Amino acid sequence: MKIKSAEFVVSNSEVAKCPNTLIPEYAFIGRSNVGKSSLINMLADRKSLAKTSGRPGKTQLINHFLINKNWHLVDLPGYGYARVSKKDKKYFQKFITDYFERRSQLISAFVLIDSRHEPQPIDTAFMEYLGKRQIPFSIIFTKADKLKPQALERNIETYKSILLATTWEEFPNYFISSSTNGIGQEEILGYIQKINDNLSV
Predict the structure, then answer these.
(1) CATH number at residue 81
(2) I want to staple 58 with a disulfide (CB 3.0 to 4.6 A). Which of 53, 76, 106, 175 is the partner?
(3) Is residue 86 domain-resident?
(4) What is the rounded distance in angstroms from the CA atom of residue 13 to the CA atom of residue 65?
(5) SS3 at position 148
(6) Domain for residue 98, yes or no?
(7) In the chain, how many domains are there?
(8) Is there a domain that residue 164 lies in?
(9) What percent of the chain has pLDDT over 90?
(10) Sign of CA dihedral 133, 128, 103, 26
(11) What is this structure's pTM?
């Protein structure tokens, strides 16, 4: 897939105010500071489509971007650590779950995982939530350039063994990415393109 156009549409904190269209959506979510904004900019081949920040928890709204005039990339708030009050954390969590449970345009989610770390309970719990709700998702292991190939492979295998030993019968579909080197761009966009092509048949 070639990205010919990528434009910001709207930011809001209410699912009811999301774009009222039939355009398919792909939502990106992960723990704060997982590199989500950088990944979105890399996928869209734009330097500043999504706002990046050294401060975790920067994204605190549902952000819609229209890609190639035919699908929405949705940037969701990070779960987990963010420098906000407990009240606000509950608020963010509510509209995240509202989005996943009420947004009929959602085709698939992408759960971002920092490839440098061992499986975190908050990540596995969130994927379990998606599984129970039967919400399709793929994993994107980010920051692959920060590890040597052997270490990256070892960390992913650890992830597989833990998930398969607990909740999952099959390991979810996954991608390896690096916003720095552009790793994963072609594979992730190709995956979205394939789904969109099947939707239009």
Answers:
(1) 3.40.50.300
(2) 53
(3) yes
(4) 15
(5) coil
(6) yes
(7) 1
(8) no
(9) 62
(10) negative
(11) 0.90
The Cβ-side half-sphere exposure at 74, using a 13 Å CA radius, reads 26
Place of tokens 């070639």: 2
Residue type, 57: G
Tokens, residue 7: 């434009």
Spatial separation of the C-alpha atoms in residues 46 and 6, rounded to whole Å: 8
pLDDT tens figures, 127-148: 988 998 999 999 999 999 999 9
pLDDT less than 70: residues of the chain: 51-59, 80-92, 201
pLDDT for residue 53: 44
Phi and psi of 162, rounded to 5°? -70, -45
In whole angstroms, what is the distance from residue 92 CA to residue 90 CA? Answer: 5
Tokens of 83: 């420098």
Q: 9 is written with which tokens?
A: 């549409």
CB 83 within 8 A of CB 55: yes
| Domain, as residue range, for 39 | 6-106+123-143+175-199
Q: Is residue 165 part of a domain?
A: no
